[in-house]
Amino acid sequence: MKTVRVNASRSYEVKIGSGLLETVGSETAKLTAGQALVVSDENVAPLYLPKVVGSLRQAGLTASSASVPAGEPAKSPEYYVNLLNILAAKRLTRSDAVIALGGGVVGDLAGFAAATYLRGIPVVQIPTTLLAMVDSSVGGKTAIDLPAGKNLVGAFHQPSLVLCDPDALSTLPEDVLRDGCAEVIKTAVLFDRDLFDHLRDRSTGFDREAVIARCVEHKRDVVCRDEFDTGERQLLNLGHTVGHAVEKCSGYAVSHGKAVAVGTAIMARAFSKDADEILSVLRAFGLPTETAFSPEELASAALSDKKRSGDTLTLVVPERIGRASLKKITVGDLLDVIRAGY
């Protein structure tokens, strides 16, 4: 097992190792002796919810559960308010905890409910997808979507604990696993030539525990220097401005990972000296590097992105593998950038 300590506004551990799902009860009992509400989705719940609830109860906790539909539509104001009402009905207090069991959608939704119920109660993130393990479960970003755009309502709320069990990846459909690979590749492009070479050489046979830990370490380092996303942390948005536009244009039929892969490819073609290598690795993982949506459609959709500030946007420029920078552009220049990398 590997442990990465995050020293942000709340210090906590990210534990990565086989069999950690069996320890949810004993680990959560270190944080609370009261109630735990496990939030999951209709895909993950049949696989892991009985094990997690059983582990919590065996540790002496009062455990209950709530389930939401699988997929991005669950990150809606309706499901958010429903979850708040469940927390209130079960009379959870600030000494109790929410357990987010699932992928990024569950983590975002349950995390935002925990951030805002009683002005904040503890949340334990138990990511079951690669994307959530390497990215969304760490760093404290929580959010729901609005019709106008993705993640427009949210809060920074660091978890009290993150448990990443790579065994959970064995039940993932291959397509969902590849979504997570897009975030792993993004991390390598941003910070780590050695990690990029490992992915290039091993493809989907990469060392899962080691790669998850390395990605978490990179995110930890950035989050600890810029917890509230006012500077360096924006580097983690590589591919996301265009990626979120792809998601929105598709009505969220295109998954987050694939959309980020497209966005990363467009930014690489527009700016990177290593564009051919980046595109080659994305394709080797079965990820898309093009989209049917036009540059004009993408630019229009990106105007509602939360990273917009007045008439400017901050883009992440992947200069070389392992080196990136932030570039402010005007909203009017975005179309030209997308055309350059299209």
Describe it for me?
There is one protein chain. The chain has helices spanning 24-28, 45-58, 77-89, 104-116, 130-136, 174-191, 193-202, 208-225, 240-249, 256-271, 275-284, 295-302, 331-341; strands spanning 2-7, 11-16, 35-41, 62-68, 97-102, 123-127, 141-146, 149-156, 161-164, 308-309, 312-320, 323-330. The chain is α/β, with parallel strands linked by helices. The chain folds into 2 domains: 2-171, Rossmann fold, CATH 3.40.50.1970; 174-205 and 216-341, Dehydroquinate synthase-like - alpha domain (Dehydroquinate synthase-like, alpha domain, Up-down Bundle). A 7-stranded mixed beta sheet has the order 1-2-9-6-5-3-4, with helices on both faces. Strands 10-11-12 form a 3-stranded antiparallel beta sheet. A two-stranded antiparallel ribbon has the order 7-8. A hairpin with a 2-residue loop joins strand 7 and strand 8 (149-156). 50% of the residues are buried.
Relevant terms:
342 residues, alpha/beta, Rossmann fold, Dehydroquinate synthase-like, alpha domain, 2 domains, seven-stranded mixed β-sheet, three-stranded antiparallel β-sheet, 13 helices, 45% helix, globular
Write the layout of secondary structure elements.
Blueprint: E1 2-7, E2 11-16, H1 24-28, E3 35-41, H2 45-58, E4 62-68, H3 77-89, E5 97-102, H4 104-116, E6 123-127, H5 130-136, E7 141-146, E8 149-156, E9 161-164, H6 174-191, H7 193-202, H8 208-225, H9 240-249, H10 256-271, H11 275-284, H12 295-302, E10 308-309, E11 312-320, E12 323-330, H13 331-341
Short précis:
The protein is α/β, with parallel strands linked by helices. The chain contains 13 helices and 12 strands.
